[in-house]
Design brief:
Structural class: alpha+beta
Order of helices and strands: EHHEE
Radius of gyration: 16 Å
Shape: elongated
Strand content: 15-25%
Number of strands: 3
Number of domains: 1
Helix content: 55-70%
Length: 94
């Protein structure tokens, strides 16, 4: 049973921040899927991996900051989702 509960709303600026962070992280991950690692590009690949880790940390930090700011409800089996049309934040438990 899937439960979806509205728990808050973020600002337009916050929405654009998480959208940019998510796009950056996803772009790096997609790039990592198409690059073949060899001796000629090992340094670039290692930088890409480092960038993915940094992007993931920034993405998670944004969620941590919003949790602190808004005191969003949590659930051990839940995730927060944003409706980018309305800026509403939902707790989704599957």
């Amino acid at each position: 049973m899937k439960i979806k509960k509205r728990i808050g709303q973020i600002s337009e600026q916050e929405k654009e921040e998480i959208r940019a962070l998510s796009n950056h992280q996803n772009g790096l991950i997609e790039l990592s899927k198409i690059i073949e690692v060899n001796d000629g590009n090992r340094a670039q690949y290692e930088k890409l991996v480092k960038d993915i880790v940094e992007a993931t940390i920034c993405y998670q930090q944004w969620w941590d900051d919003m949790e602190t700011k808004y005191q969003w409800e949590k659930h051990p089996a839940g995730n927060w989702k944003i409706d980018f049309q309305t800026n509403d934040v939902y707790l989704v438990v599957e």
